[in-house]
Amino acid sequence: MTLTSHDAADDTLLITVTGADRPGVTSAVLESLAGSGVSVVDLEQILMRGRLVLGVLVTAPRDRKRLRRQLTSSMEALGMTVDIEKGSGDNRSRHRDRAHVTVIGAPLKASAMAAIAGRIADCGGNIDRIERMARYPVTAIELDVSGARPDRLRQLLAGDAAVHGIDVAVQPADLLRHGVRLIVMDVDSTLIQGEVIEMLAAHAGFGREVGDITERAMRGELDFEQSLRARVKLLAGLDASVLDQVYDAIVVNPGARTMVRTLRRLGYRFAIVSGGFSQITDRLAVDLGIHRSRANTLEIVDGRLTGEVVGAVVDRAGKAQALREFAADLGVPEDATIAIGDGANDLDMLAAAGLGIAYNARAVVREAADTALNVPYLDAIMYLLGITREEIEAADAAVGIVTPAPPLG
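Predicted structure:
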């Protein structure tokens, strides 16, 4: 974090303080500097397992020896080590091509990180900053990278991610990441576990048949509308009360409520769009606090399903159109949208979004999306947005939500 501008031709001092963290270290360093009349050019510190590393870049003082004596004395009194290096100028300017690279693993092995760092270097990139976003239930590390085109970086790192069994997301470092965004989610097997149509079919005695058709449709082997109508026909005659039973049996994916709750506080907007049924998704939207919802509607006559849907089918193109309409309605630029899905029916929606995320998806979807997450926690999406696990827990604690203690390690 640069605090002041500085002429690159001027002499500067880089002061590095290391040791066991304790109160008063930063203030003691700055008090010593204050008496020397220097200006702070840059200041950064990290804390890892109780060890502090503090770096301060300052303009060169008139009496360098006196400053060295003051710093050495004050740091020795605190049990810290100080190193002072003379040089000139500020940090070099970062390259125009900049990206956030988020690496997620459970566990995240050193070999995987070595492969990612090596690949970044191979394509001319430099790692400017590293920050841990989460340590449980997954380990998430964010790298700020400059000097490598994000699209090229994404392509190269995808191979390493597959080899090492980790998730790697690459996003351009721009202001969109810090603004209000719209998140549009698929429902079945994304927001919730399983497929609603298969749950309904089980009540009709056609669970296996419908499951086979669903899987083929999600892999892109069947036309979605034709497959949907064929499956819905098998539901003809079901009592409409079955919809209530199915809704009560729905299991929301881990982290979904946390993600919606946390990001709503930050002003994010949410929508769900589904090839499933509005009788389920509309209730789910109300339950979770989701702003917009669109899905197919099952026809019900005299309290029973007719085996037909009402109106146009929400298919692959319809999902993308819904995303665009939701964005326009909520006043969010399309570049600031995030789409999350798992099946071939989500491909157009993922392509239309500013960031398309394949979540525990079929291979055809993972290959086409901007990035893929293969962990069973939907709130891992927030690490891609620069939000740490500690920030999430602090926000929950502020409103009385208790987070279970993390495992030791």
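Summary: Confidence is low (pLDDT under 50) at residues 1-8.
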